[in-house]
Specification:
Protein name: Sulfur reduction protein DsrE
Pfam family, one: DsrE
Shape: globular
Organism: Streptomyces termitum
CATH class: Alpha Beta
CATH architecture: 3-Layer(aba) Sandwich
Strand content: 15-25%
Structural class: alpha/beta
Number of helices: 4
Helix content: 25-40%
Strand order of the largest sheet: 4-3-2-1-5
Order of helices and strands: EHEHEHEHE
InterPro entries: DsrEFH-like, Sulphur_relay_DsrE/F-like
Number of strands: 5
Distance between the termini: 25 Å
CATH topology: Hypothetical Protein Ychn, Chain: A
Radius of gyration: 13 Å
CATH superfamily: DsrEFH-like
């Protein structure tokens, strides 16, 4: 059975360590051959917008743009539909490769056999 990991990150610049942990775990899982789906919700939604990850700083942490690039190379990043709407972010505003989807898709992914889910 394939290893699958769904990660929901709710933190952004408001909680930098928690935010960085989510992206780091996702990138390490992808590099380890795990099928990863990273969900951007709440304040992390802004990282779906080009250039926003470059503004994020946390000492001794991998640069967020590099982590996003590695996750997109072999995994999936999804921006929450409602979170995007609250921030007036549209499909035209986001990084290529990021999709917008809602809770139904999250639940479907998280409930797939063999999937582990984490929330940060």
């Amino acid at each position: 059975m394939a290893k699958k990991l769904v990660i929901k990150v709710t933190a952004g610049a408001d909680a930098p360590e928690r935010c960085s942990q989510a992206f780091t775990v996702a990138a390490v899982a992808v590099a380890s051959g795990v099928e990863v789906s990273l969900w951007l919700t709440g304040e992390s939604s802004w990282f779906a917008v080009p250039g926003k990850a470059a503004e994020f700083e946390l000492p001794h942490a991998a640069p967020l743009p590099d982590l996003i690039e590695s996750i997109l190379a072999a995994g999936r990043i999804t921006l929450c539909t409602q979170c995007a709407a609250r921030r007036e972010i549209t499909g035209d505003d986001i990084i290529e490769g990021v999709r917008i989807a809602g809770a139904q898709v999250f639940v479907q992914e998280a409930m797939t056999d063999g999937t582990q889910a984490l929330v940060y």
